[in-house]
């Protein structure tokens, strides 16, 4: 039936008592919607209706009623419903949401979020002392949540996270150990200084240590905390002034993490059946994840490519064999590396038992993380000039980005290429010099072809 004269084909416009114009229109489901705002001029209202009609015809329309959901509620559901997230990632997302996003933006309706609002939110985080890297993590989470709201759920017309560079982290370059330092670290994590620390009535701590030779001595200094006294005891052992015992329980752990490029969760989930000493390989099938509540979860590695078999240097096989013989049960399903009581090895227990912070400090690499052992192994592998595909397979990555970082950073591999080219040039020159022809000055000159 044709439209009556003076009537719109789509929607309607009504002038209210205030003099402003209200717009109503049928959504794709036939239900009437009211525009979220009124208009000062009828022409503006007509333009709005034309835009809405075009969005519906093109499948780009979003329901303004659905856009009234608050960001905090939507983000919580987004995290709950996101398939494939690892437990630690879920914990991280909930922490970022509660710490940085929800306090300022959690109560804002999705439809009211704007790029300016998000820019101001980020600026307030930085002004409050939040690091750029932490702000970048929070921004990337917010961007991912709103991308789903825009692209999949069609709640908002577009993602307002359009702040250039806001999601980029400027991570500091992590340290890379030399091969000698890796072996030094593997030895030092087993050092156990001999001494005792006693709290006095004054609240201070007294340190007694066994000097080299067997005599117990009292340290001349009193310490304000037990940690300070323990640090002093460690320094005495490193200086050769205090006696120490040695526990090689974690030597193979350090060597495997470095020279097989294994993550903490991967190396601590290894079972006896995963190590083939005859073939010189280690098979990565699982990884432990420690949640914020302390629960240990055994699951797949971090990525699909994480399930892999890695060749290990023959030089560390004797260390691994010694560990298996001394510390690992005979059962094929036995964990290779365990805590003192035989359960899964926790990072906190490892750090405390090995005095990791003091170890790396006295080695001259303060702030070294356990994960930097994997970083070292990846760098050493890249320095061999291996292909991108082989490097990805060893690292357990299913995308090229991380592997490319190591390849681009590998100056040594590039130097090997230059040395190889130099050998070719020198070989060609020797051949030219030995053919008996008189040198006309063109030897070694690159000639233009074509």
From TrEMBL:
Record-linked InterPro entries: CB, DNA_brk_join_enz, Integrase-like_cat_sf, Integrase_catalytic, Integrase_recombinase_N, Phage_L5_Integrase_N, Tyrosine_recombinase_XerCD
Highest taxon of source: Bacteria
Keywords per UniProt: DNA recombination, DNA-binding
A Pfam family recorded for this sequence: Integrase_N_phage
Spans annotated as Disordered: 428-450
Transmembrane segments: none
Domain named Core-binding (CB): residues: 69-150
UniProt similarity note: Belongs to the 'phage' integrase family.
Name used for this protein in its record: Integrase
Originating organism: Actinoallomurus spadix
């Amino acid at each position: 039936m044709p439209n009556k004269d003076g009537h719109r084909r789509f929607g309607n416009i009504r002038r209210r008592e205030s003099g402003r114009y209200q717009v109503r229109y049928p959504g794709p489901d036939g239900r009437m919607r009211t525009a979220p705002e009124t208009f000062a001029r009828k022409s503006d209202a007509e333009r709005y209706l034309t835009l809405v009609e075009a969005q519906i015809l093109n499948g780009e329309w979003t329901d303004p009623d659905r856009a009234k959901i608050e960001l905090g509620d939507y983000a919580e559901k987004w995290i709950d419903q996101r398939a494939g997230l690892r437990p630690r990632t879920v914990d991280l997302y909930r922490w970022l949401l509660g710490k940085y996003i929800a306090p300022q933006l959690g109560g804002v309706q999705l439809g009211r979020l704007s790029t300016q609002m998000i820019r101001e939110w980020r600026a307030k985080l930085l002004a409050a002392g939040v690091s750029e890297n932490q702000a970048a993590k929070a921004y990337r989470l917010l961007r991912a949540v709103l991308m789903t709201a825009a692209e999949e759920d069609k709640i908002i017309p577009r993602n307002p996270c359009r702040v250039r560079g806001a999601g980029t982290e400027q991570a500091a370059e992590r340290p890379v150990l030399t091969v000698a330092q890796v072996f030094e670290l593997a030895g030092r994590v087993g050092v156990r200084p001999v001494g005792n620390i006693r709290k006095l009535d004054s609240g201070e701590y007294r340190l007694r240590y066994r000097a080299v030779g067997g005599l117990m001595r009292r340290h001349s200094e009193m310490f304000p905390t037990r940690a300070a006294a323990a640090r002093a005891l460690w320094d005495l052992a490193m200086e050769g002034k205090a006696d120490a015992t040695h526990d090689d329980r974690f030597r193979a752990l350090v060597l495997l993490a470095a020279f097989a490029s294994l993550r903490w969760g991967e190396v601590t989930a290894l079972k006896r059946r995963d190590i083939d000493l005859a073939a010189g390989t280690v098979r990565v099938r699982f990884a432990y994840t420690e949640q914020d509540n302390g629960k240990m979860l055994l699951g797949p590695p971090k990525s699909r490519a994480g399930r892999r078999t890695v060749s290990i240097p023959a030089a560390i096989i004797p260390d691994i064999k010694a560990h298996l013989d001394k510390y690992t049960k005979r059962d094929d399903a036995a964990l290779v590396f365990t805590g003192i009581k035989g359960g899964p090895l926790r990072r906190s227990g490892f750090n405390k038992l090995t005095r990791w912070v003091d170890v790396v400090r006295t080695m001259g690499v303060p702030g070294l993380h356990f994960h930097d052992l994997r970083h070292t192994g990846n760098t050493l592998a890249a320095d061999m000039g291996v292909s991108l595909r082989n490097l990805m397979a060893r690292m357990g990555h299913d995308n090229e980005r991380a592997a490319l970082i190591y390849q681009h950073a590998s100056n040594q591999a590039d130097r090997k290429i230059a040395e190889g080219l130099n050998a070719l040039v020198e070989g060609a020159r020797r051949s030219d010099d030995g053919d008996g022809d008189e040198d006309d000055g063109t030897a070694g000159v690159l000639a233009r072809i074509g």
